[in-house]
Description:
The complex is a heterodimer of chains A (246) and B (616). Helix content of chain A is 50%, strand content 15%. Chain A is an alpha+beta fold and 246 residues long. Chain A folds into three domains: 51 residues; 28 residues; 150 residues, 2-Layer Sandwich (Alpha-Beta Plaits). Chain A is elongated, with a radius of gyration of 42 Å. Chain A starts with 7 loop residues before the first helix and ends with a strand. Chain B starts with a helix and ends in a 12-residue tail after the last helix. Chain B has two domains: 331 residues, no CATH class; 136 residues, no CATH class. The C terminus of chain B is likely disordered. Chain B has a six-stranded mixed sheet with strand order 3-2-1-4-8-14, sandwiched between helices. Chain B has a five-stranded mixed sheet with strand order 11-10-9-12-13, covered by helices on one side. In chain B, helix 5 packs across helix 6, helix 9 crosses helix 10 and helix 12 packs across helix 13. Chain B is rod-shaped and about 200 Å long. Chain B is an alpha+beta fold. At the A-B interface, helix 1, helix 2, helix 5, helix 6 and strand 5 of A face helix 12, strand 15 and helix 15 of B. Strand 5 of chain A pairs antiparallel with strand 15 of chain B.
Amino acid sequence: MLLEKLTNREQVLIFIVIATFAVGGYGLFRFVPELKKLAELETTVEQNVEKVKNPKFPEEPDEDPDDLKEVQDELGAELADLRANLENLEKNLAPTDNQEMLLKISEAARAAGVRVIESVPFVVQKKDGEATQAIATRLTKRMKRKLAKEAREKARKAGSIVTTASSINIPKEGELIYRLVNELDNPRPFQRISVEGGFIDLQKFIQALRTMPWQATIVKLDIDVSIQTPPQGMPQPILAKMIVAI
Amino acid sequence: MQLNELVEKLPFFNRVNTVLVCEIDHLGLRAAAMQRHGEHLTISHEAHSDALDFNAAVAEVVTHVRQQGWVGKHAVLLTPAVLQSLIDLPIPPKNKLAPQQIAEQVRWELEPLISQHHSISAIGRMLAAHGYMTEEQIEDALSQQGRDPNSPNINISQDIIYKRFGEIVLELGYIKQAQLDKCLSRQAWLQSPSEAIQCGWSPQGRAYGDETGTEMLFQWLASAVNQSLLRQWQAAFTAQNVKLEHLYPLSGCAVSTLPLDKKTKKHQLLIEVHDTMLTGTHLIGDQVSQFHTLPNTPQDTQNNCSEMYHLLAHTEMDTVWLVDSASKNEVEANTLLSNLNRTLQQPVKSPAKPTDSITLGMMGAARHFMGMQGATAIAGVAVNEPLPPLLQRVEIRAMLAGMGLLLALGAAEVFLQVRHGLIAYENEKISADLKKIESAIARVQTKVDAVKKLKEEINNNQEDKKELTAALDLLSKELPKRNQIVHAFLNELDRAVSDDVVIDRIAEDPIFGFTVNAWALNEKSAQEFISTFQLAMQPLGFKLKDITVATQTGRLGLLGYSINFNATTLADDVWKAVKQSPNQTNPLQLPNTPASSAPSPAPSSPAPAGKPAESK
């Protein structure tokens, strides 16, 4: 038999080869991976032991959830009341989807005897970057062009510059305009109005604004003496520029 | 004894308890299936074959005993071809030598003897044993073959000296061709030209040599057989699906059937008689002390027995045994026994034969094969050569190496499993504790989360409430107040302006309030205007700041006084801070601004208006 003819040296070499393969295979595919798993498991155990020895309990709050719930419910009720009140107040504000308020202002100016030199939307940028919208106009294009032409002509005569609604103003925090834009759910539109006339007429106009069917507030007022020379015996006319929150 | 019986019943110690014992001589092949029962043997089946070809003879007896119900698979054979002798070796009975080394020593001693032993199965002796020739005829034929071509008795050719014995006796007409063929056929199973032999041995323990023990020799009972004959017999039995285990000498095996006692050290002499040979065995206790073989013929049996007795009986024998396998009948056997009793002047005993056809040698061979009492007095030749020591066998080494490897891997695996078990146990224990702690933490965390969520909701609602309140205040209070302030500012301005005062400009800043630029004809009018307006605006929360009255030429070239001041609702410190930090125009963002003094800039800022120049 071939096996019986093997010398001791050959037998040892064969054993070494087989043992190398067997031990190597076992070590490579079984022992080392299993040892690695055991090390991971051991690490997990150590971590768990550490967690058990030093448990990190979250600080238990002093408040009782039931009490907080009651507070929450009370607050909810208060909010509901406040919203209801706000909705009632907003009913006093002019609708933003038509021109009716502007017509009322125009009529008040005529009744007070002041001449409207300029009436353009005053667009304000909210803190989130969004711009407020002007009151939507329902005028035809022809009427719009006519009004724009008149405004430019009046401005030219008055020596003022007509600004367009496209210029966006950024109010400072704390200003009334800022608050009207940023603190209300429905930001109010603004209208920049320039009128010319006597002081008494201006007072009448401002008084008329207070008695409008909807709330109109002058949030900025500048008064200058008009550059036009009045006829002899007549008082010097004044030019009032105001921003009205509608 | 009971322990032995018990051990025999165990699976791993189950020795062979049945064996087919075969014996050949010139008469043919005899077989007996023997069953062991403790230290006793029973003969269960018997068979006999006279076939010339021993292949056919083996097939015949095996078939016959199987038909009778024998189911064993092992066989032993007693044959005259096996030589048994007592030799001296420098090897003690208890030694650490490998079987191969002992075999080599035994072979060295027996090789010269085996060729002499072949003379027992010479064709002339076989013809004489069969009764085909007489001793005189054999001597005559031998003398003819003995290179005596000038003998006057017969007319022989010149080349007769080159002829074989059988051819000579045929030519002389002593035998027939059929008789010669029969003997030659049998002789082919008893002799072989091959010189390779296979040996068996049994140490006897008796030692010779000097007292120092350096040249000690020990008696070994050894046997040998030609290897080619052994393979021939092995093939014959293998063909019948029976494994031939041992070959024994035809004469000399009956000794193990005698009552051998190791302790008493009795001297016994056994003379075993066969047709062609005669052996004598001198036993001391259960050890063979002397062993001798003589060729035999039926005519010289008594003389040979006497010769054997005198050859071996140097001391007084306690018992002399005669095992007669050569006598044709009981009368002849009794005659030989009584003659020996008379001749030797010592009682000679004859052990009883089990049956007429079964010899005591067959019984002895069976006892040796099954390791029974007295087996050490026989040396059989194992068919398979003795194996090297266990540790030198490749398969054993491979098995041990494999077991070592498996043990190493098993140890590694046990290490892994034990470590895994320990860690898993620890993990399980810790996990249980951890689970309790985590559940407790989860309960607290749930409460914390619930409280946190409620707090966030409350905060959000409070923020909403704050915003809604601010919006409500803005719409319901501050905007109407603003309108009121503007209206009041213009009214108060109208009342405060006298005929000597002209308002040039009113500018409103959302933070700083109103800046008023006016002109008066004289300083008194200017101061009166400032004083009156200041008093009028105080109820509205306005204060006049940075008041300046300076000489200035008016529009119509009149010399008068310019009036400049700010009407603001800012507190004094805030006003100063604003003035010192012109870039920081929002007083709400000024550092160190008292909260109480922080104004509500736009809504509370008055809207003064100047009485225009048209008033005067």
